[in-house]
Design brief:
The complex is a heterodimer of chains A (about 525) and B (about 325).
Chain A (H helix, E strand, L loop, with lengths): L8 H28 E2 L2 E2 L2 H8 L1 H34 L5 H13 L2 H12 L11 H24 L4 H9 L4 H29 L3 H6 L7 H11 L3 H28 L9 H4 L6 H29 L1 E2 L2 E2 L2 H4 L14 H30 L3 H15 L2 H11 L12 H24 L2 H9 L4 H30 L4 H4 L7 H10 L4 H25 L8
Antiparallel strand pairs in A: 1-2, 3-4
Helix pairs in contact in A: 1-11, 1-15, 1-17, 2-11, 3-6, 3-8, 3-13, 4-6, 5-13, 5-22, 5-23, 6-8, 7-8, 8-11, 10-11, 13-23, 15-16, 15-18, 15-20, 16-18, 18-20, 19-20, 20-23, 22-23
Chain B lengths: L1 E10 L2 E11 L4 E5 L6 H9 L6 E6 L2 E2 L10 E4 L11 H6 L8 H11 L15 H13 L5 E5 L7 H17 L4 E5 L2 H7 L2 E6 L2 E6 L1 H6 L4 H6 L5 E7 L2 E4 L2 E4 L6 E7 L4 E16 L4 E6 L5 E6 L8 E6 L4 E4 L5
Parallel strand pairs in B: 3-8, 3-9, 6-7, 7-8
Antiparallel strand pairs in B: 1-2, 1-4, 4-5, 9-10, 11-12, 11-14, 12-13, 14-19, 15-16, 15-18, 16-17
Helix pairs in contact in B: 3-4
């Protein structure tokens, strides 16, 4: 089925390419232009502005060090869980594995609200105003990245290597240090790069939890644009951010290539074993309980506090969502309808364009289709704030889309397309040629083969991609914060507004709970369509 | 001397192995033979300390080893797929167990010489052939001079021709250096070639122990006989040295009167004599023919004959009483 490009493919290539050109390349180009051209003259003035201001230099420095600290902390905290999931077989494992992934897919605004409830001014411990609040929220978010990346790799690593070291006289610790750790290094580096990338471009968490003291490049782009209207400086910051992100991605792919060492891998079902000794059981249950508490407490507290009223428990905060407050022009409940409509439109757009693009990547072999694959991933590496900022700068001309209702679905689709492509391509490629041959030998025409063999599998991939796109759109905050109109706020925007006004914290908790439930529902819908471990997310 | 007494082991929570007794004298090679799933590897891993027994004792020269962690037992284990460390060179793999010893380099050179890989120290393990990897794994487990070397299907991943060449070499190496070894395999020929003593295991239970000669001459029961490849296992009535089977009588002077289950060796069937049957299958085995004989009651005998017998021919044969072995587990 893999063939070189043909004339008929022009449509499949053309639509995604035009979309990316107009809604991704053009806005980025506009940002670059804005940062380099001041009052019609080419120069680096905005950049020297950035570096001459202490607060902006501070923001750049803080961005790098908080990302480094978050990465190291996440690796350390999640490693025991990665081990436990890789090496032990226990009841409810696959359910727990899905459960620990929940924080990762939750909207940043929900996580920010949950941590305000737990560790904010009215929380159990007050960490507000300290960097710990940010770091802990980042670990919470990226816990699953480490467990899945490192644990997945670890779970295929032949345990006999460690046993061989033990039989050669090495203690448990020495065997880990000399054999397991060096072999895990590529996975640790890969997981570390991803966590670094995510926290480097962290926006919602820092905006909500950082207060006025802590600001990253991402937050500064927002403030310079929305608060100070300093577009050239925001543009320069966005360019600096892009350079940073590109170098992280290059480092990551260098690590990926270095992974070439031939490893004795085994199926994870053979590697994982039930806990045997008492110390095994202690390690397993201890890790699961502590990880569960760490991941579960903020979310549980969010729900509990949203239900708390002056006199015990009740739905007062939810009822209050129907009433307009000073935080928003409309009653907060309208944000639910807005978000659902936008998510539906964004999903339709992302799946249509994503599946067209995936078909080219999966079924055609050529240098072009490989380059196309890389091109499709670029929006994933670009921060959402940059995308939102770019839309704002660029989409006034030639057609003014900045006030159009299609703007948000387009922005969200741009963020979601890489997820759709990455889900669909492996599934499309996994349709084995021998199944098609078998169908053909049973008398099926090529059209029937496609309809009965390829289509059913591909359409499931499409549904999974749709679920991702829907969840991404529901929670999207970075781009939306630039583009949402005050009269039609989305859920994350409404929550953020409610958080930033005094007195509306209960409504924020209630709306964050609603958003969490909606996101969780679309993720669980995905799990129902999933088969095997095909797909990269 | 390694002694295992009354060992019981569970596998994934289910009791699996019971009443296993094993003695490995110094310098001896003991083979543990059994089909897959019989518990050979589990037994080996329990002796190594990688699994914990439910009951029973493992001791070395009277010192109890239960609870001693694997790295402190002074035993070596060579894994079936070798488990070579992919991020280290051949030399670093072999040196792993003796790192820090003053003589480590010399010892690495020495054991690599033993296995015929002199000068391989700096090669990467990823670029070795299967046979070379096998020898690196052997050298690595020999380097720390283990008190007992355990080998888990050490030639299981090699092709047949290489296996047949390597097993006698391995035996020679173990004997020359007086290495006490436990050798796990599912292949009877390998076990016969390598061992001084063998233990036959089935479903976690010991079926028979003895020298290869004893086991071959007197299988403990019909299952062992079948597992060793004997095809003709027959129930007979013996009266005054004459055995009566369902299809005729033959001389069995070594057996006492009564009901017996016996093996008739395939080589004990000779052309010409009072018995007759129809050849239904013939396979050329290079040097001899393997012939299936159908008797008048429909039961079959397998025979190893020098001369060709055409399929469909009825022919006469006799049974050499030397080749009739009574099994202890007589039929009811």
């Amino acid at each position: 089925m893999r063939r070189p490009l043909r004339i008929g493919d022009v449509f499949l290539v053309g639509v995604p390419l035009l979309f990316l050109a107009y809604f991704f390349a053009y806005p980025l180009g506009a940002i670059l232009l804005k940062s380099l051209v001041t009052n019609g003259r080419l120069g680096l003035a905005p950049f020297s502005d950035v570096f001459s201001r202490g607060t902006l230099r501070g923001a750049i420095w803080f961005t790098v060090w908080q990302a480094t600290a978050s990465m190291l902390l996440t690796l350390a905290v999640a490693l025991p869980a990665a081990f436990v999931f890789a090496r032990y077989r226990f009841r409810g494992k696959s359910l727990l594995k899905a459960a620990i992934t929940v924080p990762f897919v939750l909207p940043t605004v929900v996580v920010g609200t949950a941590f305000l409830a737990l560790l904010g001014p009215t929380g159990i411990v007050d960490l507000s105003g300290t960097v710990w609040l940010i770091l802990i929220a980042h670990v919470f978010f990226n816990f699953a990245v480490v467990v899945r990346t490192v644990g997945g790799f670890w779970g295929n690593l032949d345990p006999r290597l460690e046993e061989a070291a033990r039989m050669l006289g090495a203690s448990r610790w020495r065997a880990f240090q000399k054999v397991t750790l060096p072999l895990l290094r590529p996975a640790l580096a890969a997981a570390g790069s991803i966590v670094f990338l995510f926290t480097f471009t962290s926006f919602g968490v820092i905006l909500i939890l950082g207060g006025p003291r802590f600001s990253t490049i991402e937050v500064e782009i927002y403030r310079q644009t929305i608060t100070y209207l300093q577009l050239p400086i925001a543009a320069a910051l966005a360019v600096i951010q892009l350079v940073g992100v590109t170098s992280i991605l290059l480092t990551y792919s260098a690590f990926q290539r270095r992974r070439a060492l031939e490893l004795p891998l085994r199926p994870s079902e053979e590697v994982a074993r039930p806990p045997r000794s008492a110390s095994d059981r202690l390690l397993l249950s201890g890790t699961l309980v502590l990880s569960g508490l760490f991941l579960g407490t903020p979310l549980a507290l969010l729900i509990v506090r949203s239900l708390r009223t002056n006199r015990g428990f009740g739905l007062a905060a939810y009822r209050a969502l129907g009433t307009r407050t000073s935080a928003l022009f409309v009653p907060p409940v309208e944000a639910i309808t807005n978000s659902l409509l936008i998510a539906a439109a964004a999903t339709l757009l992302a799946v249509t364009i994503g599946m067209m693009a995936a078909a080219i990547v999966a079924y055609r072999t050529s240098l072009f289709s490989r380059a196309f694959d890389v091109l499709l991933m670029l929006p994933l590496g670009t921060s959402a704030v940059t995308i939102g900022f770019g839309f704002l700068v660029a989409l006034g001309k030639p057609i003014d889309l900045r006030t159009s209702p299609v703007l948000l679905p387009i922005a969200h689709a741009l963020v979601a397309i890489p997820f759709v492509v990455r889900t669909a391509v492996p599934v499309m490629r996994s349709v084995r040629q021998d199944l098609r041959d078998a169908a053909a030998m049973l008398g099926a025409t090529p059209a029937r083969v496609w309809r009965r063999i390829d289509l059913p599998m591909i359409s499931r991939a499409g549904l999974i991609g749709a679920g991702f796109a829907f969840a991404v759109s529901l929670g999207e905050f970075g781009a939306t914060s630039f583009l949402a109109r005050p009269s039609t706020p989305t859920l994350p925007i409404a929550i953020f507004r409610l958080l930033s006004r005094p007195g509306t914290f209960p409504q924020a908790l209630a709306l964050a709970t609603v958003l969490m439930v909606l996101t969780a529902a679309s993720m669980f819908a995905i799990e129902r369509f999933r088969f095997g471990e095909v797909g990269e997310f | 001397m390694l002694e295992v007494r009354d060992l019981a082991v569970s596998f994934e929570g289910e009791p699996f192995m019971h009443h296993v007794n094993l003695t490995v004298p110094d310098g001896a090679v003991v083979a543990i033979l059994g089909p897959s799933g019989s518990g050979k590897s589990t037994l080996l891993r329990t002796i190594a300390g990688l699994e914990s027994p439910d009951a029973g004792s493992i001791s070395w020269n009277g010192e109890l080893l239960n609870g001693v962690p694997p790295h402190a037992r002074g035993f070596g284990l060579m894994f079936q797929d070798y488990a070579l460390f992919p991020h280290m060179t051949v030399g670093a793999n072999v040196a792993f167990g003796i790192e820090g010893h003053p003589q480590a380099d010399r010892r690495v050179t020495e054991v690599l010489e033993w296995v015929g890989l002199a000068g391989y120290e700096h090669r990467s393990v990823g670029h070795l052939s299967g046979g070379e990897q096998q020898r690196v794994a052997l050298a690595r487990s020999l380097a720390p001079e283990p008190r007992v070397l355990m080998l888990d299907e050490p030639v299981g991943s090699l092709d047949r021709a290489l296996r047949e060449r390597i097993v006698p070499q391995l035996r020679e190496l173990l004997v020359r250096h007086q290495i006490t070894a436990i050798y796990v395999t599912h292949d009877q020929e390998e076990a016969f070639t390598i061992s001084d003593q063998m233990v036959i295991l089935r479903d976690g239970t010991m079926m028979q122990t003895g020298t290869p000669e004893q086991v071959w001459s007197f299988p403990a029961n019909a299952w062992v006989a079948g597992f060793l490849g004997f095809s003709n296992i027959i129930d007979v009535d013996v009266s005054r040295g004459v055995a009566t089977a369902s299809w005729g009588t033959f001389d069995a002077s070594a057996l006492a009167d009564g009901r017996h289950r016996v093996i008739v060796r395939e080589t004990a069937i000779e052309l010409g004599g009072p018995l007759s049957g129809v050849a239904t299958e013939r396979r050329f085995r290079g040097g001899h023919y393997q012939v299936t004989i159908e008797m008048r009651d429909g039961s079959t005998l397998e025979a190893e004959l020098d001369e060709a017998t055409r399929v469909g021919d009825t022919f006469a044969f006799s049974i050499d009483p030397e080749g009739v072995v009574g099994l202890p587990d007589s039929p009811a």
